[in-house]
Specification:
The structure holds 2 protein chains of 2 kinds. By secondary structure, chain A is of the alpha+beta class. Chain A contains 7 helices and 19 strands. In chain B, a hairpin with a 7-residue loop joins strand 8 and strand 9. The chains are: A alpha+beta, B alpha/beta. Strand 5 (43-48) of chain A pairs parallel with strand 9 of chain B, so a sheet runs across the interface.
């Protein structure tokens, strides 16, 4: 005979209301099977049975509130009815801190998964299942899950392997690739014959960030007809300015002066003149943003993120450079605050630092334009029929042709170019 | 540091959101996924907690149906409540064994998360002993207090589901169909208190405050863009 008590649900909680018996007296109950429900505060909790047996006695009826450790029921364990052993239901049992993953899932009617990442054919997968699938080159899309919510369990994989005639390898043993077709679950179905012997591919699920980037790229290309226009900008004046002040700038402020704040500043001037480039589309409406918030794309180890310089039009070169350095550093340290990556109205991406001359950037939705900055190189150019050596940079503007026509885009870029080529602001 | 995956689901009907919660709950119990915080908004729906009394539902199902409101009995704690557009709903799927085995502490921390979030918008909110939820002094009526956020949680093997609903810009007229949580105190929203905020920004702020109060790192699905690099 085992006594079932009202469990202690927390330090400050001295009583609980028994809201529902899930078993009737005389019914059999398995260990860990939900036995009754309690309500404490605004929390309802299912309490599993501490033992297997027959519910012999219910001492507290539904709706009654009793103190913790009050005996609420007795369970007959079958053989012998010795002295009653009080046993607290499972939540009470002291367990070593984080409890390890239980591989078995209670069987439940398979139901279609709602909204798990598309990589997962049927709901979340346990690390064990992923590992087994990887080692055996199993296309998880072909395995029927029998776990809760249609999840694929280890047993399902073993059954699948047995059915396809492949040996089930012992858990830790390096896998012999099973003779099954193995397209990665996320990829389009390219037929791929796993070769015998050494595996020639490795399959791993995309990270959440990778998935988001992928989704966003496709969304953007599908949403906006992208057109890219490229303008050649003579950065000689700014290059000289930068050369003259860079040491002093660094010693004054502790970070370097790059070309990027100049381009951001010139963009601000052009966005003020052509507010359509700082707008977005909402259905059939054009939404003009009164703030100029410039997103700066930052490359991360396995992805990229676009933190936003808010009210960029209120900042000078120093302020812009400081924001860029700060946002980029914290983006790489994954220390951005959530509101720092939303609300951008225009973006800048600087592929020039990786040596690219010209790029065709993808618009950061729901914005309508993005400037891509090419590398700044000393280049021979013709000025007044003479050849001169100038610091040249190519700026690419990708714009949403639903809203912006080429003429406007080029007027915008002409303004950016003019501000940069005839720079007149103080730097220090 | 423990990690908590944030999922911003936008507007999602009650049924599918419930199913998603149940899937995550099962996966969380197995240790197959980390803690989750679902952030979303429901279309008009009235839900009844396990201990809810039908009499706190003031309209017949027929009237509600005509008003475009669906009805769901659920297994969460608490009585009857309304969800709808403009209301930020957060469902933590969290294994309390890895935090504190204490439902009281959990509910207090959820309340604190809401209080801290409202403070960021200049709203001073607080608790009323024995009345779980978050309350504000009602500046409109000048007297008494009003409920701005409701809490109702379900616990199964120490894993939480359901959670909280914070009125951001909810159309308060829909509350006429119920006695919220069986209480005859008024309800209010951030908008009624003069704060104009989008659901998205409040939801970001709530997630950050959740991380602070539960001492976990919030993993966001980051909004991202095209080609990039460096400064």
């Amino acid at each position: 005979m085992t006594d079932v008590v009202m469990p202690q649900m927390g330090e400050s909680i001295v009583e609980g209301t028994l809201t529902k018996w899930l078993k009737k007296p005389g019914e059999h109950v398995e260990r860990d099977e939900p036995l009754f429900e309690i309500s404490t505060d605004k929390v309802d909790t299912e309490i599993p049975s501490p033992t297997a047996g027959t519910l012999s006695e219910v001492l507290v009826e539904e709706g009654k509130t009793v103190g913790i450790n009050t005996i609420v029921a007795r369970i007959e364990n079958g053989a012998g009815s010795g002295a009653a052993k009080p046993a607290a239901p499972a939540p009470e049992a002291p367990a070593p801190a984080p409890v390890a993953a239980k591989p078995s899932a209670p069987p439940a009617p398979p139901s279609p998964p709602i909204e798990e990442p598309p990589a997962e054919p049927t709901g979340p997968l346990s690390p064990l299942v992923r590992k087994m699938a990887r080692e055996n080159n199993i296309d998880l899309g072909k395995v029927r899950g029998t776990g809760a919510g249609g999840r694929i369990s280890k047993q399902d994989l073993e059954a699948y392997l047995a059915q396809s005639g492949a040996p089930v390898p012992a858990a830790a043993q390096p896998a012999v690739p099973a003779p099954v077709q193995a397209p990665p679950p996320t990829a389009p179905a390219v037929p791929y014959q796993a070769p015998a012997g050494q595996a020639k591919t490795r399959i791993e699920p995309m990270s959440t960030m990778r998935l988001k980037i992928a989704e966003h790229m496709v969304l953007s290309k599908r949403t906006s007809p992208h057109v890219t226009t490229v303008h050649r900008v003579d950065m000689t004046k700014i290059a000289k300015l930068r050369d003259r002040y860079k040491d002093q700038f660094k010693s004054n402020y502790g970070f370097s002066l790059t070309y990027l704040p100049f381009i951001a500043r010139a963009s601000v001037a052009a966005l003020r003149q052509f507010p359509l480039l700082n707008a977005s589309l909402d259905g059939n409406n054009i939404v003009y943003h009164n703030e100029i918030n410039i997103g700066i794309a930052v490359a991360l180890e396995n992805g990229l993120i676009v933190p936003v310089i808010r009210n960029a039009d209120e900042k000078n070169i120093l302020g812009l450079q400081r924001s860029i350095v700060d946002l980029a550093a914290r983006a790489r340290a994954r220390a951005l605050k959530p509101d720092e990556v939303v609300g951008g109205t225009f973006s800048i991406t600087n592929f020039g630092s990786y040596g690219s001359l010209i790029g065709t950037p993808v618009i950061n939705q729901p914005q309508v334009a993005i400037i891509g900055v090419g590398t700044v190189d000393k280049t021979p150019v013709v000025i007044d029929d003479a050849i001169a050596i100038r610091s040249i940079c190519h700026l690419s503007l990708s714009f949403d042709h639903r809203l912006i026509d080429g003429a406007l885009a080029d007027q915008f870029m002409t303004k950016v170019k003019q501000v940069l080529e005839s720079w007149s602001e103080e730097v220090l | 540091m423990r990690k908590c995956q944030v999922r911003e689901l936008g507007r999602i009907a009650y049924g599918p959101a419930l199913e998603l919660q149940q899937q995550l709950l099962a996966a969380r119990k197995d240790g197959a996924v980390p803690d989750h915080l679902l952030l979303l908004e429901h279309p008009h729906v009235i839900t009844l907690g396990r201990n809810g009394r039908q009499e706190n539902l003031l309209a017949s199902e027929e009237i509600m149906e005509r008003a475009g409101i669906s009805f769901f009995p659920t297994d969460r704690g608490g009585d009857v409540t309304y969800h709808g557009p403009g209301q930020l709903v957060a469902y933590p799927i969290m294994d309390l064994r890895e935090w504190k085995r204490d439902v009281g502490a959990f509910v207090r921390a959820v309340e604190q998360t809401i209080i801290d979030t409202l403070a960021e918008y200049g709203i001073e909110a607080g608790r009323i002993p024995k009345l779980t939820g978050v309350w504000v002094g009602d500046r409109l009526c000048g007297a008494g207090t009003a409920k701005i956020a409701a809490i109702g949680v379900h616990l199964s093997r120490w894993v939480t589901s359901h959670g909280l609903a914070l009125n951001v810009s909810t159309d308060m007229s829909y509350f006429q169909y119920i006695v919220p949580c069986g209480l005859t105190k008024p309800v209010t929203s951030m908008a009624q208190l003069g704060v104009r905020a989008t659901l998205e920004e409040v939801s970001r702020s709530l997630a950050a405050n959740f991380g602070r109060n539960f001492d976990c790192e919030m993993l966001f699905e980051a909004p991202v863009l095209a080609a990039e690099r460096e400064n």
